[in-house]
Amino acid sequence: MRQCKRRTLPSAQTRDGETIDTSSFSASLPERSVAVVLGTRPEIIKLAGIVELLGPAAWIIHTGQHYDDDMTRIFFEEFGMRHPDVHIQIGGATRGTQIGAATTMLDELFGELRPQCVIVQGDTNTVAAGSLAANARGIRLVHVEAGLRSNDRTMPEEHNRIIADHLADLCLAPTDIAVENLAAENIDETRVRKTGNTIVEAVHRLMPDVTDRRSITVAHGVRPGQFALATFHRPENVDDAAVLEEILLQLGNLPIPVVLPLHPRTRKRLDDYGLVPNMDNITIVSPIGYREFLALGAESAFVISDSGGVQEEVSVYKRPLIVVRRSTERPEVIGTFAQLVQPGPVIAQIAVGWMDDLSGVHETLGTLESPYGDDGAPRRSVESIVEMLDR
Ligand code: UD1
Ligand code: UDP
Predict the structure, then answer these.
(1) I need a labelling partner for 144 at 20 to 30 A (CA). Which of 17, 38, 176, 179 fits?
(2) Does the CB atom of residue 103 touch ligand 1 within 6 A?
(3) How far apart are CA 148 and CA 182, in angstroms?
(4) Is 92 in the pocket of ligand 1 (CB under 6 A)?
(5) Does the active-site annotation cover 233?
(6) Residue 98 Cα: closest atom of ligand 1
């Protein structure tokens, strides 16, 4: 594990050059009264809107689960978020050590900062630790993106999200299915609010205009509408050499070129297993910023991924997605924006089918609404938090 250390900045900074209307919330929330705990790329993306609305009420606490600049810093900068007030470092450790170390450090920190509530988002080890530490300190816990279930107990994320939902005083569920999942586990409805998913606002905020999207696409050596965007990082796909090799084989066989921004976990596995993708058809790049990723997604013919967030985003920018996984906690898009498959030739079969009538596929998806709601999720989330604290 990387060395654990904490850094506390002297004061909050507001977003440079922009006026943010947080007046309705700052009237109800005292300065530095809400601890926002995050640690990975998707948590930064999905909490940015909430952090902005909280303004000076927020402490931003980064666990360092992700630590490379292209997995952390770039997203703070793109969203104009101030850098974390407190930074601990649990990156690269085993799951047990990450949860244990972060719980210990967050417990101590919450004892010093005494926030009125703690916010966590999603299903990572950071979420489990933030939830346990808030609970241990008797501080109210808010879980953003509550109620997702893959019903796959082999996934650490399934356990992390169940821990958070059952400890949370406020479960902010993105969809009706998530609300139903919470009810099925006897989580009292007084603890649940449906908000939509904050990703919708994040996509709308950072999606480049069409001219910029096309320049970004061309800069990656591919043509708009004539390439696939792919990402892979799930242990079920990348921690098994044969499975990862099969996925690379399928990407290499696609009828159009593939841009593959490589997650650090996947990069390590390629090195460990000595796998070399078919570079004629696959362009591998380091993880890219959110603007760039959204631009490529929106200009792609289709997307292939095992990412959670990408399943939601395609429904906003209206591109078809092949989800390569055993299960998904995002059933809302399956059968419309996405198809769920296991690694194998079926990937190329679906892709070839879509390529037969790509503009028809895009046109049909363009008529469908995203099941993840509108730009109001960050605002509804903060309103629900204020309401909880007033109770
Ligand atoms: C974690 C989350 C997963 C989420 C993903 C988002 C858990 C259990 N998993 O998976 O739910 O979908 O983040 O991307 O919390 N690494 C680097 N540099 C980094 C970050 C990670 O080299 O900046 C390396 C680590 O050292 C480790 C590997 O990548 O070897 C995996 O990192 P880890 O945070 O444990 O899990 P993820 O696969 O990123
Ligand atoms: N993403 C990004 N750059 C990349 C790959 C992904 O900005 O190179 C974004 C993507 O748009 C999505 C989020 O990162 O919003 C998803 O992260 P990841 O797949 O690592 O995590 P998951 O959503 O599966 O938990």
Answers:
(1) 17
(2) no
(3) 8
(4) yes
(5) yes
(6) 35
Q: Are 144 and 37 in contact (CB under 8 A)?
A: no
* Residue in 47, 18, 20, 21 with CA at minimum distance from that of residue 34: 47
Confidence (pTM):
0.95
Whether the CB of 62 sits within 6 Å of ligand 1: no
Q: Using CA positions, which residue lies closest to atom 17 of ligand 2?
A: 42
Nearest CA to ligand 1 atom 16: 264
**Which amino acid is present at 219?**
A
Instruction: Tell me which residue of 25, 3, 37 sits closest to 135, measured CA to CA.
Output: 37
Cβ pair 290, 78 in contact under 8 A: yes
Kindly report, residue by residue over 77-133, the tens digit of the pLDDT.
Answer: 999 999 999 999 999 999 999 999 999 999 999 999 999 999 999 999 999 999 999
Contact status, residue 56 vs residue 70, Cβ threshold 8 Å: no
Burial class of residue 256, CB neighbours in 10 A (0-12, 13-18, 19+): middle
Per-residue confidence band for 278, with pLDDT thresholds at 50, 70 and 90: confident
Structure tokens that stand for 362 in this block: 């895009």
Give the sheet arrangement for strand 258-261, strand by strand: 282-285, 258-261, 228-231, 302-305, 321-324, 338-341
> Using CA atoms, how far apart are residues 46 and 200, in angstroms rounded to an integer?
9
Catalytic annotation, pick one of 62, 143, 220, 233: 233
| Ligand 1 centroid from CA 66, angstroms | 6
DSSP codes joined into one string, 252-275: HTSSS-EEEEPPHHHHHHHHHHT-
**Candidate of 65, 70, 325 to mutate for ligand 1, largest count of ligand atoms within 8 Å of Cβ:** 65
